[in-house]
Amino acid sequence: MNPFLKAVLLTIVIVALALLVVLQLDNTRTVELRKSIDKTLSENTERQVVQYYGQVMASDPQSQCQYLTRLRQKQFDSTYPLAQRIQDYEKNNLLNSEYQNIKNTYFLGLTEIYLSGIEHHKLCGGDEIPLVMFYSEKNDCPDCRAQNRLMPFIAQRCPKVRIYAFPSDSDLTPLQMMTDRYNISKTPTIVINDNKRLVGLSSEDEIIAALKANGAVCDGATVGASIPAPLTASAMVNASS
Amino acid sequence: MQLRRYDTETGLVDGSIAPAGFERSGLDVQGKKTLIVLGAAVLALAVIVALAVSFNTLLLIYTIFMIFILMVYLCIWMDGASDTSEPHVPMDQWPSVTVVIPSYNAGHTIFECIEACKKMTYKGEKEIIVVDDGSTDGSIDEIHKIKGITLLRKEKNAGKGAALNMAIMQAKGDLVACVDSDTYPETHALERAVPFFHDDPKLGGLVFFICAANPKTMIQRLQELEYWVSFGFYFKTISFIKGLHITPGPMAMYRKSIFIELGGFDEKNIAEDMEIALRLRRHGWGLTTCHTAKVYTEVPVSIKALYKQRLRWFRGGILNLFKYTDMFLNPRYGSLGLFTLPMMLSTGLFAALFTFWMLSDWARSLISAILPTFSNLQAVLPGLFVLPPLDPLMVSSAIVVGLVPAVIWGFFLWSGFEIAGEKPKLAHIIPCICLMTVYPLFLGVTFLSAYAHELSGQGYKW
Lengths: 241, 462
Prior knowledge:
In chain A, 61% of the residues lie in helices and 9% in strands. With 241 residues, chain A is an alpha+beta fold. Chain B has a domain at 1-18 and 29-83 and 200-369 and 399-462. The interface between A and B is large, with 54 and 43 residues.
């Protein structure tokens, strides 16, 4: 048999085998992500059930809020690292095309956490302050990435501030509704406490000042380059690179 | 002795006598320049396409291409190229051999070289001619004192091709072995090689197994391995399907009659060793390898010297490919036209393209990291210190596919060791890793540079 023909056949077999392995690896990643997202979604349901329980059983609002606050912390703990993982896994992906769906589910879950936070504030008060950062997913936005790199430090300095990041050009209706509500025309734009808007790339001092004006407690000096950065929900901004 | 003139423009032996020995075409191959420009256009198009697809997709395409090329080698190897048997024809009469050594300012290697050539055992008549190509380092006075060799002298430095031609015109032997002044052949090299010529009357040239001499620095150790794979494994394989395209300069042997029939070396070609091989093949002469005869050659010590050497090889390769375009994809020339030449060009272009893509990707991420700095330095600095999380699933799928050719190549390296009769040592690990990771990038950059040099028509330096 002609060695060239043999080589073609062998190449097909080897590439097919390699792609099978890769397919398996890609799928393992998405399965892991799906599991984690399922967990955050079930936590959302858990919170809804707790609220419903409070309404039906007319439980004491103070103990009700205690349960809800604990639940919220749990939700943040499981949702925040997810953004980074989705981004990293997608970067290493080769054949799986599920990532847009995964991201959509993730954003829907995150939107629910954001909305429930506002509701939680009305119901139970508390000192949690939401900070939402809008970025572009479809167009390259170096400023968004730069803004994003700052977020772990904001989280470090202001422990009560909850950081969210949403794409302003998503196809998801709830995200479009938010984009309209906050009148986002330029990215990055930061919305603090549902009212204060910072348009364009903002410095750490500007953000801290705006947060303080909204009642946040922040300490520490400006820019601590040596602080190990904790993960925040804004990690996915890097994916637009 | 008079020689027929070979016209490198037309590729025809016109039969007219070259009055002043060997005069060859210039480097500026008009008409073929359009081809070079066309090649650049294809490359530019490929670059644009490459920029449009994702890095992973490009890596996948590149990997599949590489797997195919490596599989071809593997299949040929398994089909019988691994066979080490030699021609077993009884040599009733050993033809006379002339060893030709061109020397230009080679005072630090030439004496060892002449010594090794003198030590070469041979049952027939052996003659050694050293051509001093206008050296200015005084080595000629020392060479003069050596007995048993013929010393020819060129007043002005005219290049290796011209020096070889001068010696060939004086040579008495039926076979001519051209040895570089920094190359030391094994003692049995001639005895092993000559039977091949006796065995096959259409054999025009023979390639020895080129190895690196006394590798000391990391760059040299890396080349030692590379030579075992390239001149060992690849040459043996390619030679088996009669697809050899080059008779490497360090040491090669030719029938003297081919020089009379086809003219001598192209004196103005920077890769005259490739040019003569392609010319032989075009006129129906065969090439083969003799892997039982090792010749040791000095290899570049530093990365800069290596770059200069490879730039010359690549430029010569591109130039000669364009000179012999008619052999390209021409079934008349068998595996050479259908596999070796297209494979050479496409692997070079692919490597250059891939390198270009990688470099531009790095540049892009660097720019996107630096760009916001101008608007807000404070916002950029902290992010540079974030460590990525540890996760076993963080293995890139594209790299997993990329490991496949690496494994096949590992087998080739193993076979290279076997051909060379060497055992893998611990000291080989680091050069081996370099050879598999950064070295292809280096070659890609050099190939890009060679193409750019060729396009801009910059002058040649040895």
